[in-house]
Structure formats: C-alpha cells, structure tokens
Design brief:
84% of the residues lie in helices and 0% in strands. The chain is mostly helical and 93 residues long. The protein folds into two domains: 48 residues, no CATH class; 43 residues.
Length: 93
C-alpha cells in the first residue's frame, strides 16, 4: 500500500513537472507575425459552417419579428406606467 501511494505521488510530481515544462516552452516561443496571424484566421474561417440562403432568410425574419414583438411589449408597458403616473401624480405632458 505504501509503495502504491509513493508511486502515485511520483507520477503526479512527474506530470506536474512535464506540464510546467510544456508551459515554459509555450511561453518562451516567439510570437508569430502578421502573416502567421492571418494564416490562422484563414484556417479558422474554413472551419465555419455558413448558413444556407434559406436558413439566413429564416433567421433574419425570426430576428425581425422578435424585435417587433419586444418593441410593442415595451411600448405597452411604458404606456401603462405613464398612465399610472398621470393618475397618481395628477399631471400631464
């Protein structure tokens, strides 16, 4: 039992040391220039799954309808509060 725990401790220490070494190597590497940055951007852009035209139109309508519904709801609540203020405070605009 004691030997097993000792082996586990040594493995943990070894793993921690190797992780620290990897981090040190990563930090000490030179940063890439503009070309390297834009190469990375191009690679990441190729991974993007772009929506089809049909999906884009559907998403656009969904956003527009949602915005319209929220604007009507906010207008209604605002009007209700304004009427309550007029009734309670007795003033008008």
């Amino acid at each position: 039992m004691a030997t097993d725990n000792k082996d586990k401790d040594e493995k943990k220490k070894g793993a921690i040391a190797s992780a620290a070494a990897r981090a040190k190597n990563t930090n000490s590497q030179e940063r890439g220039g503009f070309r390297e940055y834009f190469r990375g951007v191009r690679v990441e852009i190729k991974k993007v799954v772009w929506p089809t035209r049909k999906e884009l139109v559907a998403y656009t309508w969904t956003v527009l309808i949602t915005c319209f519904c929220f604007s009507i709801a906010i207008w209604a609540v605002d009007s209700l509060f304004m009427q309550l203020l007029k009734l309670t405070l007795g003033f008008s605009f």
